[in-house]
Design goal:
Number of helices of chain B: 3
Order of helices and strands of chain B: HEHH
Oligomer: heterodimer
Mean pLDDT of chain A: 92
Low-confidence stretches of chain A: none
Number of strands of chain B: 1
Largest interface: A-B, 64 and 47 residues
Low-confidence stretches of chain B: none
Strand content of chain B: under 5%
Radius of gyration of chain A: 19 Å
Structural class of chain B: mainly alpha
Number of strands of chain A: 1
Structural class of chain A: mainly alpha
């Protein structure tokens, strides 16, 4: 797995260095101007947060059903990635909102549900760290609950009245905006693969250390 | 102080902290919210000829957003690397003790 780190890191750096060039060439949005260009990093980060929620939830379900420790290790890595990408979404969103809406934060359904999703996974990590015996199973149940929240977060803008742009902004992007946007999504996917691979590897190494100490009778 | 006293005192301080947090959140809510939410956009309207003054407006917030992404991801990568180095060290120690 470690052999993947180098190529993924190089590819990530190249893609993240090229992204601002493409974004700079993308057309401005009529009413928001420059600040709308936060969209090119904000939305891919949100996509990675949702992808991570599914990874964490699905592998948690596998862990609960089949009692496979490997599944739990993948779920923990996924849970941490939800919190990291969620934090990026929750910081870049208000920076955009401050100009687009005139306020940093609105307690509307999209923002509140995204915050709740992030808090569920923060809770998941806290349970995993401080929950003591049985925390793995309790955490897994929390992750499934968190994953179930994702479709509601996604469709919330289309069902309820909210200031947040609807999901159709992505599907209706003109060519000038669509190319840099999907390029950024790809860049985030590669970065996600790098971070996720490294994070899963860390969990595997930890499990090996624990096993060795257990065999030596130190734990 | 008895253990019961310490437990009660700990619970009381946690309850006070929670109550303070809840009060702050409730007080902050109306300050951030707008009175009437206009409907969200369903499509972006691209424009090529924006006046130069409008093009670079709010550049600081835009730069801040990009910095958050770059710094956040690089910091997370660095943290994983450090944790991996520490675990590798533990692994080497455990293996050498085993031999």
């Amino acid at each position: 797995m470690r052999r993947l780190f180098g190529p993924l890191l190089i590819l990530s750096v190249i893609l993240f260095a090229a992204a601002p060039v493409l974004i700079a060439q993308a057309p401005y949005e009529q009413t928001m101007g420059l600040i709308q260009k936060i969209f090119y990093f904000h939305v891919p980060a949100a996509m990675m947060m949702m992808l991570s929620s599914f990874i964490c939830g699905i592998w948690s379900a596998i862990f609960l059903l089949r009692k496979k420790p490997e599944a739990d290790r993948i779920a923990v890595a996924g849970g941490e990635m939800v919190v990291v990408f969620g934090l990026i979404v929750l910081v870049t969103g208000p920076l955009w909102a401050r100009i687009a809406w005139g306020v940093w934060w609105v307690w509307d359904v999209r923002l509140t549900s995204a915050l709740l999703l992030w808090m569920i996974f923060c809770g998941y990590l806290l349970v995993r760290k401080y929950g003591g015996p049985g925390a793995d199973k309790l955490g897994a149940a929390m992750a499934i609950f968190g994953m179930a929240n994702v479709p509601f977060v996604y469709i919330s803008v289309d069902i309820w009245r909210t200031m947040h742009p609807k999901t159709t902004v992505v599907t209706t992007l003109g060519e000038g905006m669509a190319i840099p946007f999907w390029f950024c999504v790809f860049a985030f996917l590669v970065m996600y693969a790098l971070l996720f691979t490294a994070r899963v590897h860390l969990e595997e190494q930890r499990a090996r250390v624990e096993q060795l100490f257990l065999e030596a009778g130190d734990l | 102080m008895s253990s019961l006293g310490r437990t009660v005192r700990g619970m009381a301080s946690r309850a006070a902290a929670l109550a303070t947090l809840a009060t702050l959140l409730l007080a902050a809510g109306p300050a951030f919210a707008q009175e009437e939410a206009p409907p969200g956009m369903s499509a972006f309207a691209p424009v090529q000829n924006l006046p130069p003054a409008e093009r670079m407006a709010h550049g600081a917030l835009w730069v801040a957003a990009y910095a958050v992404v770059w710094v956040g991801l690089l910091l997370f990568l660095w943290v994983i690397w450090r944790r991996l180095a520490k675990v590798d060290e533990d692994l080497r120690r455990a293996e050498s003790r085993r031999k």
